[in-house]
Specification:
about 170 residues, Rossmann fold, 5-stranded parallel β-sheet, alpha/beta, globular, 5 helices
Amino acid sequence: MTETTETSPPTSPPPVRIFLVVVDDSPELKVALRYACLRARKSGGKVALLTVLEQGEMQHWLAVENLIREEQRNEAELMLQKLAREVNQLTGTLPALYVREGNPHEEVLALIAEEPSISILVLAAGTDPEGPGPLVSYYTGRGLGKLRIPLTIVPGGLSNDALDAIT
């Protein structure tokens, strides 16, 4: 009698879930970042940070604009490095860092299109009376149909304890 063994085809590991957080100077950034970090840590995922430098309109002062742009880029890179340390403390991994120039709505979509590993966009809604913020407003309106990934909107007023409890 011969013995047969079944072998299953090799399986590749599941793709790593990457949570994209858009870095700006809003107070709700910390909420979106912590939420993304906690979700990444619990799901074996990673975090990506994107900051978008909006282009100026000083074409007749090109030298001044270039100097301002360089200064903004340096500030953005310093902020990303600081946030990368926070991500590392919360997740144990280093985030992917992206600096883009242009319209924030368009640059978020462009990055998502270029990086197929990005799987979730995490934004925190502002708590100001003016509304949830320009990115949340755009991606919950006409921009929603342009996304190829899920959008997670976190209430911007959540405390760390509340975030810990829901992730």
